[in-house]
């Protein structure tokens, strides 16, 4: 017995006497019977994020007891009522009002509008090949997909094409139960070893549920994932025993190697991405949180901001750096192995990659590297600029949509932006 509303999955059913159907409106009350206070808090966040969500207009609804209600709805209101002993029992209840989407709520037609843009680059790449279409295996699309990947969420279908300046649209159907398969998502946990990750709905991150002490196992127990690529923070000592904050980019091989990002006035002054002696960033901020794209921003005390972008269908994470500092500065990405040692690397046009290993990381950048980069001893690359810096990071360039370093660079430069919405048939 399960009830799914958006990304919120409950082992409960609506209170039978509370179910009301008025035209296309559906309302009911339901309990939240969680296994812990933490889970209850996460479920409350997921339900609250359904209302006035700027990134999602409709949500899937699946009730195992009565599939006649299964389909897609707009959420009109949610009212959560914690119990008197909520903080010790993890028990709460809520009431919700939904409205069926027009054009057949059980199997509506989704239209995806996409725009492709060529990233400015110094590598004379003008027509890069990148993903043009991507969708879960369970969807029924107007596109004939040519390739697929098996991810932790199931099979992802995709089709690549050479870049062209265009805005285009394509249509698809998807069962409500599989709507979020292979989607991008931002997740939180209080303990990755003993507690599950819960997707955040909307842009309001419950910061109080995150660990703020870097020494407690990582600043902010969160991750950005799409079933193939995952990004999450970690704190480990470098070769001198100094704790440094970094980002792990892990894939199907789960080759956990921290990718440290730094910035400074020159390569010689490049520091870790905290930008100060305190260590750690402020709380992560969600700029976009849709099934097609999630963008997470980290802001350091020194005024640097790092944006991490992950899309449905991508097998890399895109990274952008900006700063409030004036003048030119250097931004770089460095890879550390166990004990904070560098990883033997090889340069390629537009980046640097691991020389050997089963899972070989690679970093690509849009601009010409700064003097001293790429550093093949430390596995680092970066460039100087008075404007923003853009990188692509993958844990293994030999697997994914592209299987070469040239393919990684092209996929990164062939930027696409998507938005999915329901259309009346």
Q: Can you count the beta strands? A: 31
Low-confidence stretches: 212-219, 273-279
Helix content: under 10%
Bulk shape: globular
Domains (count): 3
- Roughly how many Å is the radius of gyration? 22 Å
Major sheet details: 9 strands, antiparallel
Q: Quick check: average pLDDT?
A: 83
* CATH classification class of the largest domain: Mainly Beta
Strand content: 35-45%
Structural class: mainly beta
Kindly identify the CATH topology of the largest domain.
Beta-galactosidase, Chain A, domain 5
**Tally of contiguous helical segments:** 3
- CA distance, first residue to last residue: 33 Å
Give an overview of the whole structure:
This protein is mainly beta and 425 residues long. The protein has 3 domains: 3-100, Elongation Factor Tu (Ef-tu), domain 3, CATH 2.40.30; 109-178, no CATH class; 185-409, Beta-galactosidase, Chain A, domain 5 (Distorted Sandwich). It has helices at residues 37-48, 86-89, 405-413; strands at 3-5, 8-10, 20-22, 25-33, 59-63, 71-82, 91-100, 109-118, 129-136, 140-141, 147-151, 154-162, 166-173, 185-188, 198-199, 222-225, 230-237, 243-250, 258-264, 271-272, 285-289, 293-299, 304-311, 317-323, 329-335, 345-348, 351-354, 362-365, 380-385, 389-394, 414-423. The strands form 5 sheets. Strands 14, 15, 16, 17, 18, 19, 20, 25 and 29 form a 9-stranded antiparallel β-sheet that branches. Strand 21 (285-289) and strand 22 (293-299) form a beta hairpin. The chain starts with a strand and ends with a strand. The model is unreliable at 212-219 and 273-279 (pLDDT under 50).
């Amino acid at each position: 017995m399960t009830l799914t509303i958006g990304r919120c999955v409950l082992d409960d059913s609506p209170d039978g006497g509370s179910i009301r159907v008025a035209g296309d409106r559906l309302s009911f009350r339901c309990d939240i019977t969680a296994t812990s206070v933490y889970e209850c808090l996460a479920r409350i966040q997921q339900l609250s994020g359904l209302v006035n969500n700027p990134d999602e207009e409709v949500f899937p609804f699946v009730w195992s007891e009565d599939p006649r209600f299964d389909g897609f709805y707009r959420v009109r209101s949610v009212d959560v009522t914690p119990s008197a002993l909520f903080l010790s029992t993890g028990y709460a209840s809520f009431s919700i009002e939904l409205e069926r989407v027009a054009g057949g709520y059980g199997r509506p037609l989704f239209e995806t509008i996409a725009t492709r843009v060529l990233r400015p680059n110094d590598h004379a790449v003008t027509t890069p090949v990148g993903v043009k279409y991507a969708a879960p295996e369970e969807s029924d699309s107007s596109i004939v997909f040519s390739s697929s990947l098996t991810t932790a969420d199931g099979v992802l279908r995709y089709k690549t094409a050479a870049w062209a300046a265009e805005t285009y649209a394509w249509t698809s159907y998807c069962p409500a139960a599989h709507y979020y398969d292979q989607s991008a998502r931002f997740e939180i946990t209080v303990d990755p070893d003993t507690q599950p990750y819960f997707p955040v709905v909307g842009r309001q991150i419950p910061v109080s549920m995150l660990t703020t002490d870097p020494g407690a196992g990582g600043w902010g127990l969160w991750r950005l994932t799409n079933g193939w690529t995952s990004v999450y923070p970690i704190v480990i000592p470098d070769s001198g025993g100094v704790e440094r904050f970094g980002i792990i980019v892990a894939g199907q091989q789960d080759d956990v190697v921290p990718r440290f990002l730094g910035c400074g006035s020159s390569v010689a002054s490049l520091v870790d991405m905290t930008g100060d002696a305190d260590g750690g960033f402020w709380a992560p901020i969600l700029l976009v949180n849709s099934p097609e794209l999630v963008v997470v921003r980290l802001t350091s005390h020194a005024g640097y901001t790092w944006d991490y972008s992950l899309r449905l269908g991508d097998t890399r994470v895109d990274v952008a750096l900006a700063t409030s500092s004036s003048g030119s500065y250097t931004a770089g990405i460095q890879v550390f192995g166990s004990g904070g040692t560098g990883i033997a690397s090889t340069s390629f046009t537009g980046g640097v990659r691991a020389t050997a290993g089963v899972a070989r990381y690679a970093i690509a950048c849009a601009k010409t590297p700064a003097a001293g980069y790429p550093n093949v001893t430390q596995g680092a690359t970066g460039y100087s600029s008075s404007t923003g810096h853009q990188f692509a990071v993958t844990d293994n360039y030999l697997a994914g949509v592209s299987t070469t370093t040239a393919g990684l660079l092209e996929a990164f430069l062939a930027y696409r932006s998507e938005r999915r919405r329901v259309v009346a048939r």
